[in-house]
Amino acid sequence: MSDLFPPFAPDPDEPRKRLFKPVPFRVIVPNIITLIALCLGLTAIRLAFEGRYEPAVIAIVAAAFLDGVDGRVARLLKGTSRFGAELDSLADFVNFGVTPALILYSFLLNELKALGWIAVLVFAIAMALRLARFNVMLDDPHRPEWKKNFFTGMPAPAGALTSMLPLYLSFLGVSVGAAAAPIALVYLLGLAFLMVSTIPVYSGKTIGLKVPRQWVLPIFVLSVAAFGLLVSFPFEMLTVITVCFLGSIPFSVMRYRQLARADAMQAAEARQAPSEQETPLA
């Protein structure tokens, strides 16, 4: 019986098999940026519980900036991955759904007790549903090219930054007391509706693809001026940006409808063209 199982000595020179395949560093970099943004969102919650609302708002603004950077860095480095996309969605839910809602509850909505908490829940759940729909629509191969210039519903970072308008006004000296809590509740619910709605919001992804030469230097000057104003007067600029963004939604809807009508007319002409080219048989 011992001959059936002879002793086996492994070859010491045989290379060991790796349990995991190495991952290129260019794939890791975008995920690191996403995790830093997630840390900022979680830190904002702690700052709000400590009553430090101004740095909490700045942390969310920084997280929104990093959210816009990580995807572009991934495409630039050719480091996109399914793992990164899922991690980005989870970070967006925490940073832009949970964190702003909790900050608003700690700042003002707690005056309404249960009603304020219900508004917080509605906003956070609306953000989760909006992100889930966004991920599903990315996999739609039949989506027209022109629709990629629009978001379906309010995007997650915009929803977070606009939701903190009561805090911006408070930092500017506007009295935001218990009497303003019902207004803030209605405002937050309205933003939740915009996020889960099918209202088209211009994404601006095509801005800057082709810039006329005569506009290059003015754009540089305006960009530097905008950055300087944002650094010097952050809450004034955030208030202006919020109001301008909300005011631009009707124009986005009108532009979307114009493009939809033009696309429908082109599709109708394309269907009629083959029938007009057919000749009847003699």
From TrEMBL:
It catalyses: a CDP-1,2-diacyl-sn-glycerol + L-serine = a 1,2-diacyl-sn-glycero-3-phospho-L-serine + CMP + H(+). This is CDP-diacylglycerol--serine O-phosphatidyltransferase. PROSITE patterns: CDP_ALCOHOL_P_TRANSF. Its main location: membrane. It is found in: Endomembrane system. The keyword Lipid metabolism applies. It comes from Microvirga aerilata. It is an enzyme of class 2 (transferase).
